[in-house]
Amino acid sequence: MNNAYHIEIYKELSTNVQRHIDGDGIHQTTISSLSIIKSSTLTVPTHVLYQPAFCIILQGRKEAVLADQVLYYGVGDYLVASVDLPVKGQVIEATESEPYLCLRLDIDPYVLYEVLTASGLSLTNRNRIPRGLFVEKMDDGLIDSVTRLIKLLDKPNDISVLADLLIREIYYRLLSGPQGHAVSNAALIGTKMQRISQAIQHIKQEVQQTCTYHDLVRDRRNECSLFSPAFQRCHGDESLAVPKEPETA
Q: What is the pLDDT of residues 32-67, one digit of tens each?
């Protein structure tokens, strides 16, 4: 498919999703794990907590900063956060007539694991720890799956039967895509990525200030040498400042 065709698809999707929301903000849809995010104005850099999710940009552009990693994503891009991460985010392209629009599909690690197991996909570089946040280009398969999921919003009677099937299809396309290894690590029980996720969950619940990875391994002294490089690879730094409220995309 050519770029002109893709542009038309995103325009159509933008029009469709805006019929289901009213005003700026984060809007929960009738599909429980799917939200629509809209901003008609540029925003200032804000510290937010990105939770595991698959985010598709339909309109506008945004910047996300994770330690020394700066990610820009716009129309035709998708972002995946495979673990809870504190990120500094900012909408950098939005107007009243063409607001920033993002679809956020929360990732269920248990369902993701089921899809991974059923798919039989080979897990290469299983011991390499990927960054917990990445941006990739949408491909035709993902565009098709996402389009059909959005169309379900106009057919509420079909959601209970078809939504879970389409979400599993999206998971499969993410797992079989160029960043499948990064996505799969979030679903594998006992991996370093999961231990990092558990540590960050601990911070969310109990820590209200900046801390280092040493704070996270006080009760895991025998894992310190393993945890340190893994944490830095996933998060990008040894320090971690956690905002009070979660948000993604």
A: 999 999 999 999 999 998 889 999 999 999 999 998
Give the integer Cα–Cα distance in Å for 179 and 121: 13
Whether 42 maps to a domain, the answer reads yes
State the CATH number of the domain containing residue 66. 2.60.120
Please state the domain count of the chain.
Answer: 1
Rounded Cα distance, 97 and 220, in Å: 52
Looking at residue 78, its amino acid is: Y
Question: 14 near 103, Cβ under 8 Å?
Answer: no
113-132 per-position pLDDT tens digit: 999 999 988 755 555 556 78
Query: Cα–Cα distance between 160 and 149 in angstroms, integer?
Result: 12
Q: Are 246 and 26 in contact (CB under 8 A)?
A: no
Question: Is 234 a member of any domain?
Answer: no
